[in-house]
Amino acid sequence: MSDESTxxxxxxxxxxxxxxxxxxxxxxxxxxxxxxxxxxxxTISLNTAAVSKAALIRKLxxxxxxxxKISEQAGFGRGTETxxxxxxxxxxxxxxxxxxxxxxxxxxxxxxxxxxxxAIILLRRQQILDGLSLLxxxxxxxxxxxxxxxxxxxFAGRELTEA
Length: 163
Fold this sequence. Notes:
By secondary structure, this protein is mainly α. It has four helices and two strands, in the order ααααββ.
């Protein structure tokens, strides 16, 4: 490939990665907002965060698709594992490598935030189900497990009218 092609590819990939970093930072902020809304039990803010999160994830998917196309057009594969080879080919000042590293760091932070928020949601859901179960007089559906893997229900109660 010519030097012009190398520089052109480098410029295109840097633009995509810079936009990806910006988008990932927006996603991180949205996930922090989502966590705050979960802690405050603010359903309006939670819904707003969910809509924003979905839009940012769609945008990131599109940027990843563009990144893959550029990499493929340069003679490398579409996968993320090809970024080191692409950077070695066109990255004379480490800008591509630095942008890629920054993006991956932020993406990892977003993954952790998203998993934490998901765990909070699952816990709250289970608490609600446990409360409903108690009010209905049903046996609690929340199970824990013994070291051998056998399920043990943590609640065996009676109907409130019997209490």
